[in-house]
Amino acid sequence: MTSWRYNFLLHLLLPFVYLRLLWRGKKTPAYAQNIEQRFGGHKKLPQGGIIIHAVSLGETLASQPLVNALLTQYPHLPLIITNTTATGAERARALWGDKVHQCYLPYDYSWAMRRFLQKCQPKLIIVMETELWPNLIDQAKQLTIPVMLANGRLSAKSATGYGKIPSLVTPMLQALTVLAAQDQDTAQRFQDLGTPESTIQVTGSLKFDLTIPDDLTLRADELKQQWQLQTRPIWVAASTHEGEDEIVLTAFQQIQQQFNNALLILVPRHPERFDKVADLVAKQGFSIARRSQQQAITPEVRVFLGDSMGELLLWFALADVAFVGGSLVNVGGHNPLEPAALAVPIVTGMTMFNFKQITDILLQAGALQQGHDATELAKIVCEWLANPEQKQKDGQAGLAVVNANKGALKKHLAIVDDVLALKK
Fold first, then answer.
1. Which of 152, 257, 287, 366 is the least buried, fewest Cβ under 10 Å from its Cβ?
2. 3-state secondary structure 179-221
3. For residue 18, what pLDDT is reported?
4. Rounded CA gap, 49 and 144, in Å?
5. Which residues does UniProt mark as catalytic (predicted)?
6. Alpha carbons 409 and 161: distance in angstroms, whole number
7. Distance in angstroms (rounded) separating the CA atoms of residues 210 and 63
8. CB 143, CB 116: distance < 8 Å
9. Cα–Cα distance between 171 and 174 in angstroms, integer?
10. What is the pLDDT of residues 321-354, one digit of tens each?
11. Which residues does residue 348 pair with via DSSP β-bridges, in sequence order?
12. Does residue 129 have an active-site annotation?
């Protein structure tokens, strides 16, 4: 697919894109309230700063150590955090408030991207992980704005997809100023797609540089006392997708046969599914409490629905064992390092291609195990719950992996320094 075909198709889809925004806005008002931003119609933007694009919730969380460091290192430069999804935007505002300017990145129409970039005239664009758009990169090149791909990752599956449209992908990758890859495999895949070797640096993953709030353990201990959880085995199933909740609940039924006072904290990935999952839990016959309704966990409650935003670390801090979702369906899994950083052993499904290197390291350390179905998940969880010493050992192994792999943030900041120095 050539550039003109790509742009032709985008413009054919323009009416449907607009209608989809209106439709999504009925369920999530943020989509309807910011339509003008999707086409470069931003009203007020700070100029001469750094844009950090984090498409959704996962990328926003991954960008947290980098954004915090940039706020400290470059207090004179405004930071613009752009998102594509409402959940990502909401989390960015919750994390940084008025310390940054949060807005939506326009859809990848050349005229919309140009309007946006001309309004804010950034010194640098930092794109998180894999969110590369041809017209964003092309317009930045035309306006001589450097573009950095930070925390870059590319699975073999995604690389195969990119490889099918080289006439579109290769010029985009060749226009990047610098590509900070999480690992050597990612670096090689990008190079095979046409990224110049001179622009690629292997930095490791920013996800290892996550920060645990100082008061997190205290808050978790207070909740344990308040809800009388000290003697209850707790399994946290985090970031579940449609099709996974049923499997998790089936596994939990089996866990309860061995640990009849066990508690499941179930945290769906997407807020629009909260009510649907609550109905599913009730239909399965479990007594349920919901965080969104400020309901306490009483001794009768078997499933606690973590239907809130920004509290996942707190639920992990309560956990004896954690399940990381997106791994029983073809999503590719989510970040297993948050429970690892809290010394909580992890179980996942078999589909973790988004975090293959991290998963492999945790598997080798014994901090993570994988199961194909509900029965295998239940068996793994029960083995850890029945053997507290082994559970603690495996949890500590995960924490050791996190600590041993820190350092990507320092490398990213050095790259930013170099790029900004060239821009002066």
1. 257
2. EEECCHHHHHHHHHCCCCHHHEEECCCHHHHCCCCCCHHHHHH
3. 86
4. 14
5. 59 (proton acceptor)
6. 29
7. 9
8. no
9. 5
10. 999 999 999 999 999 999 999 999 999 999 998 8
11. 324, 370
12. no
In 11-49, which positions are buried (b, 16+ CB within 10 angstroms) versus exposed (e)? Answer: eeeeeeeeeebeebbeeeeebeebeebbbbebeebeeeb
Q: For residue 193, with 0-12 CB atoms within 10 Å meaning exposed, 13-18 middle and 19 or more buried, which class applies?
A: middle
| Phi, psi of 178, rounded to the nearest 5 degrees | -155, 145
Instruction: Report CA 322 to chain centroid distance, whole Å.
Output: 17
Q: Which of 5, 7, 1, 3 is nearest to 112 (CA)?
A: 7
Full-model pTM: 0.80
Q: Which domains does the chain have, with CATH numbers?
A: 21-204+407-423 (3.40.50.11720), 216-404 (3.40.50.2000)
At 365, the amino acid letter reads: A
CA 153 to chain centre: 12
Q: Which tens digit of pLDDT belongs to each residue from 195-209?
A: 999 999 999 999 899
Catalytic residue (choose from 36, 59, 272, 389) = 59
How many CA within 13 A on the CB side of residue 389?
0
